[in-house]
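Minutes, project check-in
Item: structure for the 174-residue chain
Input as provided by the requester:
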Amino acid sequence: MRYNAAVPIRSAPRAPSRDAEVRAALDAFRSLGQALRLGAASSSAGLSSAQLFALQLIAEQPSLSINELAALTFTHQSSVSVVVQRLVARRMVAKIASPEDRRRHCLAVTAKGKAAVRRAPKAVQQQLIAAIAALPAAERRTLVRALDRVARRVAPDLVATRAPMLFEERGRSK
């Protein structure tokens, strides 16, 4: 085989460098973090991203219990309870006794809460949940394993505790 100067010689595609991959991963984290912060910041009601997410879900599905809301948000019941208490304190959500079982409380959005939902953009958490759920199962498992390893290296003490809802700080007074 003779070399033809008119045909360029192609080298094998180069794998991205470790630095480029780290940068790409951090850029993805930054983009997600910014989307979560901006989603709540654009709410004129002054809600945290987690509060907006919970409020929208309660508005979409009236009569949810705390446990049902926790399942929808993929968050532990105790974390959701803290967020709901803040919404109740702001008079955006009311807890009402269930007509079927007086021991069970249902969540209802108040007029003030409905007005906030109308003004607010869709919560980014819903888009994030849908995007993760849409990944093929193998990619989802890989993502979970990788993020868990990163979290355990960065914040081992926090990984061992129940995390609050996305962008709801522990012990936040708002």
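Outcome recorded: The radius of gyration is 22 Å.
No further action items on this chain.
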